[in-house]
Every structure is written in structure tokens, then in C-alpha cells.
Amino acid sequence: MNSSNQKKRNFQIEAFKHKVVVDPKYADKTWKILEHAITEIYNHNASGLSFEELYRNAYNMVLHKFGEKLYSGLVGTMTLHLQEMAKTIEAAQGNLFLEELNRKWNDHNKALQMIRDILMYMDRTFIPSNRKTPVHELGLNLWRDNVIHSSKIQTRLLDTLLELIQKERTGEIINRGLMRNIIKMLMDLGSSVYQEDFEKHFLEVSADFYRAESQDFIECCDCGDYLKKAERRLNEEIERVSLYLDSKSETKITNVVEKEMIASHMLRLVHMDNSGLVNMLIDDKYEDLGRMYNLFRRVPNGLPTIRDVMTSHLRETGKQLVTDAEKLKDPVEFVQCLLNEKDKYDKIINLAFSNDKTFQNALNSSFEYFINLNPRSPEFISLFVDEKLRKGLKGVSEEDVETILDKVMMLFRYLQEKDVFEKYYKQHLAKRLLSGKTVSDDAERSLIVKLKTECGYQFTSKLEGMFTDMKTSQDTMQGFYAAYAAELGDSPTLVVQVLTTGSWPTQPSITCNLPAEMSALCEKFRSYYLGTHTGRRLSWQTNMGTADLKAIFGKGQKHELNVSTYQMCVLMLFNSADRLSYKEIEQATEIPSSDLRRCLQSLACVKGKNVLRKEPMSKDIGEEDAFFVNDKFASKFYKVKIGTVVAQKESEPEKQETRQRVEEDRKPQIEAAIVRIMKSRRVLDHNNIIAEVTKQLQSRFLANPGEIKKRIESLIERDFLERDSSDRRLYRYLA
Amino acid sequence: MNKLGRGHRDKVHQFMTITGTSEKAAYQALKASDWHLEGAFDAFYSQPQPKSYTDARRLEDLYNRYKDAYADMIMADGITLLCSDILVDHQDIVMLVLSWHMKAATMCEFSKQEFIGGLQSLGVDSIEKLREKIPFMRSELKDDQKFREIYNFAFGWAKEKGQKSLALDTAIGMWQLLFAEKHWPLVDHWCQFLQARHNKAISRDTWSQLLEFAKTVDPQLSNYDVDGAWPYLIDEFVEYLIENGIIQNGQLSDWTQKH
């Protein structure tokens, strides 16, 4: 062979020139194989099939452009099988219906999976490019259309499901697993199927059921029981959803229960006689209240309903409390009742209403409302504090003291007329300090600090001044005795408290005639004091002092008498006289007559304290009465306390006086507020001034618009303000 | 002038009587306002008064006629004489108007400056001229603006020297006088109320606000606004009216109260 004859050959790939002979019956034949396979699969005979061969067949059909035939064939075959399955299901009797449905559904799913595997190539190529429904989805749709929506099955399915749920609601046990599967089937078929074919009807039927049930319950149950039942049903439904329904149904079904069982009957429940909200509150039924709270918070306007009823009940009870004449006789009792009421509701809100802020606010506003209905509340609260600080807190731990004082502060915050409280507090504090009757200095100080934190420095500066005076007086006394030690050996012991006028509540200073021993001593003190403090003026407040007298009575009984200064003056007279008439006593002591009467009454007319004897023995002091030392006086105590300079509830005239003083004090405060506001605003109209002034003074008292107006006019008179010339409602600040 | 129709002649006459001007001035004023009396009055009063020539000498003489023997001012006797000269009762309200022109500081006395200054501003320098001015001065009370000025002036003029407020009796007297000119149906009730409930002096603010009250609030109190920044005394007055049934359901009932 000649090598030069060899032609160079490139590899060339040429199209297949031979026509592949496709058997025209190829498609039919192939389809028949597949069709047969599908039938076998549905007949549970899949084991005899070769997956690989079937796959190849399906693949070839698609490859040779017979995808359409394959697809429509699939549709047709599957439809036929499903229709057969439907017939079987339809034929099932009674309880077996669902089971059969479930079984067939499982079968279909298994079959569908195998079929999809076999037809995978078509699923991936032919179907998307021809916008056909994928095999799996197709299978579900066909199931839906041919089985679920078949006329004989659709209604029966729904009815069966609802019937089972109804059974379960009435206490029967049902096959939950089966339910779950069926429901899951509906869910798998698409949310619209689940909703349209089941959920929608389920909710309707449930609504009817609960409507009827709630109507029954409410006729025969009391509120607490009803709520228990409602809660139980609610929990049941939630459980039902978790066990065999779509979780998205939970809100919907709970809404139904809430509406039918709670919202529809809300008012009737709350206002139920003998068992409604008010009764629960009165009886501290924490569990029931908590249940009501939890249920009602689920419905619109539920909590506001509870809150409103609680508020009006609280206001009503509170109002009764503060206007109850019996309670008002004892101020300390009165305040204690208020505190008890507050504690009660704090506990309720804490335990049953989960510390809901809006309920706290309702509680606060109610208290604010009724505490201020009684104009004596400020006085009574001060008296309560007084009692505690004088003796009530004896032996109480520091922590508990703080707790009680904090509770008092809380009541204080509710007061509208804080300046009235201040006035009384000052009076009572003065008495406590001067009679040395305070249980704990620390407690006193602690309360002052709390008041300062609440109201500012101004409120407490005078009160603090009072404490300072007490301390300074101690130092002064030490100095006095040091300086006069030699002279005073035999004299009675004098203790002087020097009070700065202005810090202490104003008292009219009426002096009386002190016994000689005392007046000499007092004069010595006066000169000592003025010696070291020039430019000051001292006036003895004889109506506020106390004295300890050692007395020996007719039969030799020895007693130490703790008396007021006035009482001392009277008693000392009997050192130089056996019998004294009222007039003689009055002349000698120059004590004002009303005070003298009270003084003599306390010395002669009180059992156990009658160191004096009166003729005649009547209760009242007459001008012609005569007094003697009571030689038969007896007391099992060595020390007898007769003097009373203790804080008490004011009498009517005293109350009027205090109120008047408070009103007078308010006038300059109002004026100061007006001037302050006008100075910065320059020009302001009438209504706005009233509003601003009221706001500024709110923390001390509620300013009366009429009074504000009068102050404005007074300021116009004094050329601080003028009316605008064109608009008479406008005021202008005059620099 | 003879060619004037009856109606027009009457108007000229009226104008002259009320304003005290001459016939010629009256005719001109009316003609200018198209023979509307109201318009003519408005125009007339809004003009400044023509400054007529006054003789300083004659004013001096006039002053000396009335001046008090011991003090360099006109006191009670002088005023009495003045009143009889111009034929006016000394309690006549026109004396208030005259005092207003003089800017007199206090009633029952005129300083030299006040007297002469007042007469000058009126453009008079003789008793006759002053007498002629009286109708004009009366007419000034009909003008809203001037009435207000005179009213407010009256407060300072009527009160005691050195006092801030006006004694109640004097105030009541002044109110009776002033509100006779400008009819206010509630004036008697007001005075009664003050005597029964208030019994204290009247502040300037109350005085001036009362006029506003009388002008703006109708006697039935239908447009009384309780938030209207009226002085407290006036609020009390309203309460008093309602309490005593004088105003019932917005009706001013007949006054037959017994107190």
C-alpha cells in the first residue's frame, strides 16, 4: 500500500442519516404498559413491577414527543381509579366511612408517589414547558375533585366531622388520630379546601353550640361557676386545635368561644346578684377574680367593664366610709379603715388583676375622689399619724415603722387640700414635741423627710425649725443651769423650750399668775436668755406647759402629779388655803375662764384623777362652787397623769377657726401665683389665668376660681395688673 | 332759608336746639348729610370744636368773681354762685360735664387752671356764652364715647382725695344720676343689692366694668357669660338677681321685692 494514498481523515460526526423507524403503535404500546402499571400500583401489586423499565418507558414517550399523550393518559387513568375508590368509600357504612376514606387517601398518596417517581422526567421537562400541573399536585386535585367533592361524599364528610366534634364536646371519646388524618388531608388539599369544606362550617356550628350552651349556663349558674365553665370550654377548644386541627384555626375558634360565652354575657355576669363582680370584690375571691380578668381581657371592652364596675363600687363604698357618722367619731379608726380598704384592693389587683396599671390608676383616682369628699380628712390623717407617733409605734420594728409611714404618705398624696394637712400636722407636732410625747425621734424625722421629698423644702422647713428649737432649748437649759448652779439648788427644776414664732403654730399668748417660786425662776431665766440674745422678745406660753408636782395627801399618800401649767397654778394655791371658791381661784391665777373651767373639771370631776373635791359635786363648774383638796384621793399608781395637752379632734368652733386661717393663708399664695404667671406672660386672658393658677397651686390645694378672681381684682386695685383697654377679658402686667 | 320745606325747617330747629349752634351752621351740617339728622349729629360731633376766641382778661375776671375769699380756688360758695348765674341746679348732671371739661380733680372745687382751662376749651369767656353752651354739654351725654369718658371721669372726681375707692353712698348717687341719662333697667336693683350685700367702697375696676356690663349684657341676662371675667361683685349681683327671682327664666319680673 502506498502511504501517499492515505488521505488524512478528520473525525466527522454526521447526523444520523438513517431514519429511526418508530413504530406508529409505539406510543400506544408504551402507554399501555404504563397504564397497566398504574392499575397494578392502585391494586397494591406494585412489587412485580420494574421501576427502571417503567421509568425508561415514560422517558421515551416524552423524548419522542408523546408527552401530551402520556399526560392526558395519566389524567384519565387516575380519574378512573379515583372514581372507583370514591364508590367504595361511599358504600362504607356508618363509622367505617371515615376509616375507609382515610385508608383510600393513604393508598392514593402511596400510589401517587410511585407514579410521580416513574414519571419524573415528564414532571421535570414536559410539564413545566407546557405549563401543566405537576404530577403530585395533579394527584391531589384529582382526589379533591373526584372524591372529596363528589356529591355523595362532600356533605357526608363534613357532617361526620362535625358530628364527631359535637360528640366530643358532650363528653364522648372520639378517634382523634383519625380526625387528625382526615383534617390533615383537607389541609394538604389546600387551605381553601380546609376553610371552605370544613373550617367555615365548623366555626358556624361552634358558634351556635356555644350560644345555646352559654344561654343555658347563665340561667342556672352563678358568676364564678359560669366563668369556670367558660374557661374550661376555651381550654378544650385550644386543645382540640392542637390535637387535630390546623393551628391557624386556634384564634378563630377561640374568638367564637370568647364572643358567645363571654362578650355576649359580659354585663350580665358582672352585675349578677349575689355572685357578680362586686360580691367577688367584697369577699376577696382572688381565684374567681383572676379568672374573670383573664377571660375578659380576651374580649373587646372586657377589662374596661371590670374596671368601671370596680371603680364605681369603690367610690360608693369609699363615700359611705367617709360620711359614716359612727366612723367619724374616731379619727384614728377612720384612717385605719381607709388603709385597710387600700390594702384590700392592692392585694386584689396584685393577686387577681396581675398588677394591671390601669386598675392601679382606677384605684388611685377613686381614693382621691372620696377621700376629698370629707373636708376633715386632712385633719384626721394628721391625728392618725399623731397617735402612731405618740404611742402606736411603740415596740414596732424599724421596717414596720417605715411601712406604716409610707402608707400614710400614700393617703397624703390623695389629699387635695394639702395645706390644711400641713396646718394640723404642725399643731399636732407642736403638742407632741412640747409634751415630750413622741415614741421615736427617728420616726418623726423619717416622716418629715418623706413629706419633704413629696412636697419640697418649703413644706417642711418650718417643721424642721421646730425640731431645731427643741434641740437649741436643751443647750440653752444646760447653759442656764451651769450659770446659775449655785443659786438654784433649792428651787424647782425649770425646763424651758424657747420657740421661734413663725415656725410654731400661732397661739394667742395669755399669761397667768404663776406661783411665786416659779415666777422668780422664770424671771431669772428671762434675764439669762436676753443677756445672751439681745434684740429678742420672750413671752411665756402658759397654756402649753406641763409640771410635775410631788403631793402628800391627807392620809399621808404620796403621789407625783403630772399636770398642765394651769393646773399647777391652781393646785399650788392650796398650799396656803384649805378652801377656795371659783372666784378666788380665778382672781388669783388670772387664767381665762373657759380654760379655768376645763382645768378645774379635770382636777375635780374625773374619777381616779380627782385630786380636788368640789362642792357641790355636780359635773359643771359654777361661779359659786368651792374647792378643797381631796384628802381621800387614792390611786394605785404613784405617778398620776392629769394634764392633757394631747392632740384631739377639733370642736366645731375650733374647726371653723382653723379653716378660716387656712383660707387667709391661701390668699397671698394665690396672689403670688398670679404675679408670677403675669410677670412671665405679660398679657393673658381671664380663663387662662384661672387655669394656670389652679395648676400651679394644685400640689397644695384646689384653688377656687371665685377666690382667684377676687385676688385679680385686688391686684388691679393695687396697680399690679390692668385690664386691656380694647379687650376687657385680657389682663396686662404692670411693671 | 325761607325756601326750606316744613320738614327741613323742623330739622334745622332741632339741630340747633340740641347742638347749640347757629342756624347757618345747622343748615350747612344738615345739607352736608343730606338732611339726615343722625348723620348730621355724627359729623358734627366728630369735628373738633371750632376754637372761638376767648378773652383772657374776661376769663380772669370771671374767675375772680367765683374765687373763694381765703384760697386761690373756687370752692362751694363760688360754685353755688356759678350755678345760679347759669341757671342750673348744682345737682344737675350738666355740672359733671362741665367739671369734665375742666378736668377737675375733685368735686365741689375748681382750681384756677381748671376753671380757666375748661372755659377756654369750651370757647366761652362770659356767663351768657357759658349759658348758651349748656344744651351742647347736655347733648354730649348722648354720645356713646363721650358718655363713657364722662362716666369714668366721674369716679376719680367723686371720690375723696387720697382714697383709692369711692364711698358707696356717693357711688350710688352718681349711678342714679348717670343712668338716668343712659337708661339701664337694672340700676335700682344694683343699688339695692349693694346696700344689702356689699356695704363697702367701690373700686375703680368695678366702677368702669359696670358700664361695660350695662352696655353689653341685656337686662334679661341672656348673654351673661359666667366666665366673662366680670368683677366678682357683678357676678354676685347676677346671683342675687336670680336668687331673688328678679330674673326668672330669662325674664325681668316686676320689681315688687320686699327685703
Automatic annotation (TrEMBL), chain A:
Q: Which SUPFAM superfamilies match?
A: Cullin homology domain, Cullin repeat-like, Winged helix' DNA-binding domain
Cullin family profile domain: residues covered:
376-604
One GO term (biological process)? ubiquitin-dependent protein catabolic process
Keyword terms: Isopeptide bond, Ubl conjugation, Ubl conjugation pathway
Please give one Gene Ontology molecular function term for this protein. ubiquitin protein ligase binding
By its UniProt entry, which InterPro entries does this protein fall under? Answer: Cullin, Cullin-like_AB, Cullin_homology, Cullin_homology_sf, Cullin_N, Cullin_neddylation_domain, Cullin_repeat-like_dom_sf, WH-like_DNA-bd_sf
This protein's source sits in the domain of life called Eukaryota
Entry-linked Pfam families: Cullin (PF00888), Cullin_AB (PF26557), Cullin_Nedd8 (PF10557)
Q: Per the similarity annotation, which family is this?
A: Belongs to the cullin family.
Q: Which PANTHER family match?
A: CULLIN
The protein, known as: Cullin-3A isoform X1
Q: Species lineage, top-down?
A: Eukaryota, Viridiplantae, Streptophyta, Embryophyta, Tracheophyta
UniProtKB/TrEMBL annotation, chain B:
The family database entries (InterPro entries) matched by this protein are listed as: DCN-prot, DCN1-like_PONY, PONY_dom, UBA-like_sf
Q: Could you tell me which PROSITE patterns the record lists for this protein? A: DCUN1
Q: Which UniProt keywords apply?
A: Ubl conjugation pathway
SUPFAM superfamilies documented for this protein: UBA-like
DCUN1 domain: residues covered: 54-242
Q: What does this protein do?
A: Neddylation of cullins play an essential role in the regulation of SCF-type complexes activity.
Protein name in the entry:
Defective in cullin neddylation protein
Classification from the root reads: Eukaryota, Viridiplantae, Streptophyta, Embryophyta, Tracheophyta
Gene that encodes it: LOC113688135
